[in-house]
Design a protein that fits this description.
single chain; alpha/beta; Rossmann fold; four-stranded mixed sheet; about 30% helix; about 20% strand
């Protein structure tokens, strides 16, 4: 089914133009696109004999599915998609230990999941699709990933060539495009996005507008400790991460959600970040959490701000 046919309420004229522009942009013969597109094309004919999305590791295929030449080619392609931020994966028996132990976040969400079977879902900022594959275990009708970054877009599409999950799809869209999908989704996941938005209220309004009446939002965000409804606005970076704007307390995010119209707002998890959950690996060889925190005072970031926590909320429209 054509993507737009799945969303009769969507702004078809604007979406059609936008998607055509994105397709023309990503298909340019430029190094930044070819470095990911050509490797994907070299292996996109390969299919996994099986998959398992029920456990902590997203498993697609096994080593016996491929002859040695293809197995080496796939491993080379996967390494070309480094750094791997979300995981873990096992692809044709190739184990990928990503920077984030994303199964921990998913396992915190699972007890609070709304019904996903037969539902139309958005995963905003889906990265390489780890959470989309975990959602697939729950038999949704369709999951649309919003992912504006070329590296993540091609990583997901390569993995899904192998897995051949027709109910999973990603477009080069961001949270700022949600307004083109009014009342289109039964469930929206927004994980690790809000603090990267210069206007979190506008982002939450877009999330609210894209939900069907009675729909469910699962939102997770970086946060600072404290019980007061306030947010940190860093001078430049927060924990060395550029593009960080407002980092709320849990109470602040609760108020943001309530004042943008959500009902039944409930915080169901609050935990400190740690280098056990976010760290450098052989598949992500750059700096990670331990490099972002004051080595003499782990309660502070390297800039001197309160060290980050993660907070989880669920809400309905």
């Amino acid at each position: 089914m054509d993507l737009l046919q799945r969303f009769p309420q969507a702004d078809h004229d604007r979406l059609r133009r936008l998607l055509a522009e994105k397709a023309a942009w990503i298909n340019q013969e430029k190094t930044g696109f070819l470095r990911y597109r050509q490797p994907m094309q070299s292996v996109q004919h390969l299919r996994a004999s099986s998959w398992d999305f029920s456990g902590d590791v997203v498993r697609i295929g096994c080593a016996d599915d491929l002859p040695p030449t293809d197995h080496h080619r796939v491993e080379s392609v996967l390494r070309g998609f480094m750094p791997w931020r979300k995981g873990p994966f096992s692809i044709f028996g190739i184990d990928i230990d990503a920077e984030w132990r994303s199964e921990r976040k998913w396992n915190r969400i699972v007890p609070e999941l709304p019904e996903l079977a037969g539902k139309v879902i958005a995963d905003v900022g889906c990265n390489n699709g780890y959470y989309m594959f975990r959602m697939a275990h729950h038999r949704p009708e369709f999951v649309l990933g919003f992912e504006p970054y070329v590296q993540h877009y091609f990583t997901f599409n390569t993995l899904n060539c192998f897995a051949d999950q027709s109910q999973l799809h990603t477009e080069l869209l961001g949270i700022e495009h949600l307004h083109l999908f009014p009342e289109c989704f039964d469930v929206i996941f927004c994980l690790g996005i809000l603090y990267h938005r210069p206007s979190p209220i506008e982002a939450l309004r877009d999330l609210f507008g894209a939900l069907k009446p009675g729909g469910h939002l699962i939102v997770e965000s970086q946060a600072i400790p404290g019980n007061e409804p306030m947010a940190l606005f860093p001078a430049n970076t927060y924990a060395k991460v550029p593009g960080t704007w407002f980092v709320p307390t849990g109470a602040c995010l609760h108020n943001w959600l309530t004042r943008t119209g959500f009902q039944g707002v409930q915080q169901f998890c609050d935990h400190p970040m740690s280098s056990e959950e976010q760290r450098s690996t052989a598949w992500m060889t750059f700096e990670s959490y331990q490099d972002y925190i004051d080595k003499h005072n782990p309660a502070r970031t390297i800039e001197g701000y309160p060290a980050p926590r993660r907070v989880f909320f669920k809400a309905t429209k």
